[in-house]
Amino acid sequence: MTERMSDADRHAQGMTTRREVLGDAHVNRAETRKDDFTADFQDMITRYAWGEIWSRPGLDRKTRSCITLTAMVAGGHLDELAMHVRAALRNGLCPNEIKEVLLQTAIYCGVPAANSAFAVAQRVLAEQG
Prior knowledge:
By secondary structure, this protein is mostly helical. It has two domains: 47 residues, no CATH class; 68 residues, AhpD-like (Up-down Bundle), CATH 1.20.1290.10. Helices cover 78% and strands 0% of the residues. It has seven helices and no strands. The chain starts with 6 loop residues before the first helix and ends with a helix.
């Protein structure tokens, strides 16, 4: 069982993890765009997605990236997929491993979803060099 953390500690841990996974540039852009309308949402995802889930010790970040890529394809979240392809590279996946994840999604999420995902990933990988 994990120890209880205050919301402030969870937010701090989440921000550290978020920056490590997504990169400072992405997080800085999100923080710059934050306003009264979106501040609560940004706080929630920082505390829960990044401070709770991505910070848990049970899975390594490569595995979490594989799961997240699959979830993005399954949900049709292509803008988020691009962000998480970049994160997957940062978390140590190579382009061939990303390709294998996307091939797997063709079977379980459908060929049209995987086709769109391959187009997004191809664009991101070309941008990343």
